[in-house]
Amino acid sequence: xxxxxxxxxxxxxxxxxxxxxxxxxxxxxxxxxxxxxxxxxxxxxxxxxxxxxxxxxxxxxxxxxxxxxxxxxxxxxxxxxxxxxxxxxxxxxxxxxxxxxxxxxxxxxxxxxxxxxxxxxxxxxxxxxxxxxxxxxxxxxxxxxxxxxxxxxxxxxxxxxxxxxxxxxxxxxxxxxxxxxxxxxxxxxxxxxxxxxxxxxxxxxxxxxxxxxxxxxxxxxxxxxxxxxxxxxxxxxxxxxxxxxxxxxxxxxxxxxxxxxxxxxxxxxxxxxxxxxxxxxxxxxxxxxxxxxxxxxxxxxxxxxxxxxxxxxxxxxxxxxxxxxxxxxxxxxxxxxxxxxxxxxxxxxxxxxxxxxxxxxxxxxxxxxxxxxxxxxxxxxxxxxxxxxxxxxxxxxxxxxxxxxxxxxxxxxxxxxxxxxxxxx
Length: 425
Fold this sequence. Notes:
Shape: globular
Strand content: over 45%
Order of helices and strands: HEEEEEEHEEEEHHEEEEHEEE
């Protein structure tokens, strides 16, 4: 309900402003707005509906709740965003972007994607401070802007596992012409806070001491990108205190209980490496990304995801195909049981606590592959209609993007049918 209220409010405000401003263009490439006007407002929207034939809720990424989605959902892919730009001088500018979507933690301000001040001393250098997009992906700045990519949603096997959208901090970028293209080097520092939703509940995660760097090169047809970084993850899994207290009581009889208590805590370093490339010559469009996340926290573990997608434009139509995979690289968590014989009550208690720890710490374990086909129809210069079909295979125990705590045992096979209407205003 809260999401629908935000969506309705933003649509009403932006529709009124759009009429007054004669539909200004959405700024999607970080260029300065028209110097004749100090302020400019624009926005984007996606109205989507999807149906899946499994008994488990389908989510777009780990920021979305497992319990708010039925087999047919109109909230998974629906969102609306408003962007306000201010160009004070040729050197100084600012930007604010707010997005209403299902799963966003409004109470913690996660609906604010951008709120930064930018200083450009010359054509090559740019410094920004405030709230910024997490600089990891090919779609870092446009993840919520469905009009900018051919699919209904960013590839779930890649983008779904990393629900980090924004951070508070600063970045510095250097750009320079190199041959027929342009090279960009960017460094970022700050702090991430996001709400992660797993099969055992929702919990707030903080990424302190975020430090990352990205390198990009692009020309008329190619775009190459790499990013590397790290942060210190901190958080608390809901209900873990009950498990931890029970483990503490059994620790005199169960030496491994102390280690399991430590594993239940979210407190450790997370490192990431991501690579991406795209090619666009007009008719043909190709894009792929690969990423690896290495975490010292047991619940997140080590994950790897990749996809490759191809599309071909035929007038206003763009059919496409995508192959993707997401896999946790570490073994599923298994709490060690006491080695020696215990009295029956203690043995039963240790087995129950071990099973609870396994469920908690295995709730994000992922092993799935997806095959997708779809078509985009650009029936208007700023509007597109999309249809997409996904065939998803998730291994038993590898349903981290699906499991709501009540999923049936065994592997999962699901067919997802999606329709979306995307536009700019």
